[in-house]
Amino acid sequence: MSKYKAKDLLTKTKDELNDRIQFLRKEQFNLRFQVANGQIENPLRFKLIRREIAAIKTIINNDLMKVK
Fold first, then answer.
1. 1: Cβ–Cβ under 8 A, 6 or more apart, which residues?
2. 3-state secondary structure of 45
3. In 3-state terms, what secondary structure has residue 52?
4. Rounded distance between C-alpha atoms, residue 20 and residue 53, angstroms
5. What are the C-alpha distances in Å from 45 to residues 21, 41, 61?
6. pLDDT tier, 64 (very low <50, low <70, confident <90, very high otherwise)
7. Domains annotated on the chain, with CATH
């Protein structure tokens, strides 16, 4: 998966952003199991997921989205 773009996040609705957070949380959960089993392919994915979740939460909390 590629790195997110902040401009792309700004164009999404609040519901789409919440869905994205939910998807990222599930992925983060699955990565924890991969680490526990020693099967993780990309350990840097943790960092990318954390940062994307933080960016989405910042957009939601600061209400930086365009009104849709």
1. 45, 48
2. helix
3. helix
4. 8
5. 15, 9, 24
6. low
7. 6-62 (1.10.287.310)
Answer for the pair 59, 9: CB distance below 8 angstroms, yes or no.
yes
Local confidence band at 2 (pLDDT 50, 70, 90 cut-offs): low
The Cα 58–Cα 35 span in angstroms is 28
Q: In whole angstroms, give the CA distance from residue 53 to residue 60.
A: 11
pLDDT digits (tens, 9 = 90+) for 34-54: 989 988 888 899 999 999 999
What separation, in Å, do the N-terminal and C-terminal C-alpha atoms of the chain show?
A: 27
d(CA 12, CA 65): 8
CA distances from 65 to 3, 16, 20, 49, 53 (A): 20, 12, 15, 20, 15
